[in-house]
Amino acid sequence: MANKHLLEGFSASFCGAFLVVFLALPGVAVGSNNLTFAFGEKSPPYSSSLDERAVGLFPDLVQLTFRFIPGYTTEHVVVPWARAQYNVRLGRTDGLLTYPSEEREKYAMFSAKPLFTQSFGYLVYSADNPSIDLIESATSFTELSSLKVIVERGSQWEEDNIPDYLERVSGRDMKAMMHLLMLREAGDFMVQPAEDARFIAQKLGYSEKLKIRKVDFIPNSQIPFHIGVSRQLPSAMDVINQVDSVMQNPEFQSELNTLIKGYR
Predict the structure, then answer these.
(1) What is the pLDDT of residue 130?
(2) End-to-end Cα separation, the chain, in angstroms
């Protein structure tokens, strides 16, 4: 009988010690109020890495949001975007800021309203373009049918939303596209978010020639980005409820608008 009690005591002590060690292991959820958000490493001006820190609009938006939620703190990591989504799916990382597609809603809970809406409703062109009057007066793609549009090679959104009758000039990425537009004058305009165009033009030295015009004839131009939290996180529902509450705060909305305008 004494041996039995000894074994019971040993078993309880062992289980307690194992639990302490287990909870101390990296990646084990302990219900902490410190949340880790993952961002893409090569998506400036939205997110990128600088001195191993997450920088850009999206980290700034998440930081601003949780500044209004005293019960939680956040850490930011920058990784390849595919890995960021994979880690949230498995619960290795707590959250992200992205478009809430059907696939992503399977593994993450999202805020009711977007924190940021990316708009492709802009024509980007050069002040030196000889067809500038046409670009600045057009009210439809049809009126631009005599011009060339510069697109990103492999972009499904551009394939779906820019009419086939427009002659295309392809660039491998945004930098190449900006050079084609401003330096080589291989095309007349691009369809891009204002933030992207200003960032790349400034980086490449084209800011003085850059012209951006907001239009209302581009389909599916508004892409909402919501805060998402892994469904593996025990406090996921509470986090999303807190975010939804903050979104109704007039002071937060004022600071949010100021932050976004700073990138535009």
Answers:
(1) 97
(2) 76
